[in-house]
Structures are given as structure tokens and as C-alpha cells.
Amino acid sequence: MVMMKHPFFSLTLLLMVFVSSTTILAQKSPAPTPSTDSAPTDIIRVLKKAGGYTTLIRLLKTTQVSTQINSQLLNSNDGLTLFAANDNAFSSLKPGFLNSLSDEQKNKLVQFHLLPTFVAISNFDTLSNPVRTQAGDDPYRLALNVTSSGNQVNITTGIVNVTLGGTVYTDHQLAVYTVDKVLLPRDFFVAKPPAPAPAPEKAKTSTKKKSTDSDEVPSGNDDSGAFTVKQRRLMLVPVAFATIMVALLSW
């Protein structure tokens, strides 16, 4: 009897040890870290992770366009596309060019690199030229033209021609593509038309009526100019009448 119970006891003891070990391991295992996939997209974090976009990051911050981008991604379903000019692109600009721009122009420059919709690398051939950027839709001063052949995308602004580089980031809401030249709009280099000249003022018409001969007051010191022509004619009537009467009486 003792020999028959021993295997059963050993099996029971083995099961108890296994269950106890599993429980202890489960208690000591660290909790899984929460996934960061649901975190809002931050354009600055994306560019810092990619590396090589120090100047663009500074411009995005000083113009506050980075805050605008993050807000648009949260509140719009259209998405955004950013042509990210790398540090080599900015270093090839004319020395002092960025510092010569006003705050408004710096903002416009960054917005000129942004399309207000998400565009996949294979969908650039569906865009109509000139492509509207967030800098405005002036077809002459802010024109951005895109031509696509397969996965090769060429961009021209009338000042700069560039071929789109690789994809820095995409999540089907934000697409970031690298470019090795800063996209310069014609607006910075074409002279603005002069403001229209103000309309000439209408000549003021005199409300003073010219005096007529009949309104003139004769001077009391000049007997020869005391009467007007009309008054003189009226005086001739009684004189002629008197002459006729004298002639009749003397007849």
C-alpha cells in the first residue's frame, strides 16, 4: 500500500510546486509599458529623431508653425505634407538671407513648404498645378508646380528646382519628405506692383453767382455810368412821347 501511494503523492507535490512557481513569476514580471502609438504626432519630435533639420526646427519654433501643425493634425482629417529642407539646404542659401527676412516672410517661407493635405509618394501625379501651399494661393507669386514620374517627384517654384528626397516620416496623416534645397517663392524676389495712384479730387465749383449787369449798383459819383442800357432805353420813351405831343399841339 505504501508503495502504491508514493507515486501519487509525488505527482501531487510536483503540480503544487509548478503552480506556485508560475504564480511567483507572474507577480515578479514587470507590467508592460503603455504603447506610444496613440500619442499625438509632434512635428518637432519627428524631425529631431530623423536628425539633420536643426535650422528648420528653429524656424518652426520661432514662427510657431510647429504648434499650428500639431493642432491641425489633431483637429483635421485632411492631414498635412511637409517638404523638410535639411541643414545642407539652408547652408547653401546666400549668407544673411534668413536674417534679412521679416517675421512675416519667415512664416510664409515655412508655410510654403506645407501642403494642407496628406499626399503619399505615389499620389503626387494626382495633384493639379499650381499646387496650393499653406502660404497662399497666388498663382504667380506663390506658385508651386509638381511633376511626377513613378516615385520620382520634381518640384519647381520659378526660383528653385528640386527633386524630392526620401520619406522622413509617414503615418497616413502626416507625410514628411526631405528636400536638399529651400523652396523659395517668387514672392521674395519679384517686385510688387506699385500701389494704384489715388483718384484725383474733383475740382470744387464756385457757388458764387456772377453778378449780372442788372445787379450792378451805379456809383453815385459817376453820372455818366449811373444808368444801364436798359434804363436809358426806358427814359427815351417819355421823351419821345413828349416830343410827339408838342408836335401835335403846335400843328
What does the model show?
The chain is of the alpha+beta class. It has eight helices and seven strands. The strands form two sheets. Strands 2-1-7-6 form a four-stranded mixed β-sheet. It has a three-stranded antiparallel β-sheet with strand order 3-4-5, with no helix packed on it. Mean pLDDT is 78; it is low at 1-5, 22-36 and 208-227.
Which secondary structure elements does this structure contain, and how are they paired or packed?
Elements (H helix, E strand, L loop, with lengths): L1 H27 L14 H8 L3 H9 L2 H11 L4 E6 L1 H5 L5 H4 L2 H9 L2 E2 L29 E5 L2 E5 L4 E3 L3 E4 L3 E6 L49 H22 L1
Parallel strand pairs: 1-7
Antiparallel strand pairs: 1-2, 3-4, 4-5, 6-7
pLDDT < 50 runs, ≥5 residues: 1-5, 22-36, 208-227
Q: Please bin the fraction of helical residues.
A: 25-40%
Beta content: 5-15%
SSE arrangement, N to C = HHHHEHHHEEEEEEH
Name the strands of the widest sheet in spatial order: 2-1-7-6
Termini separation comes to 198 Å
- Based on secondary structure, the structural category is alpha+beta
Number of helices: 8
* Biggest sheet details: 4 strands, mixed
Assign an overall shape: elongated
The total of beta strands comes to 7
Overall mean pLDDT = 78
Q: In angstroms, what is the radius of gyration?
A: 48 Å
Keywords: Cell membrane, Glycoprotein, GPI-anchor, Lipoprotein, Membrane, Proteoglycan, Signal
InterPro entries: FAS1_dom_sf, FAS1_domain, FLA_A
Subcellular location: Cell membrane
Membrane topology: Lipid-anchor; GPI-anchor
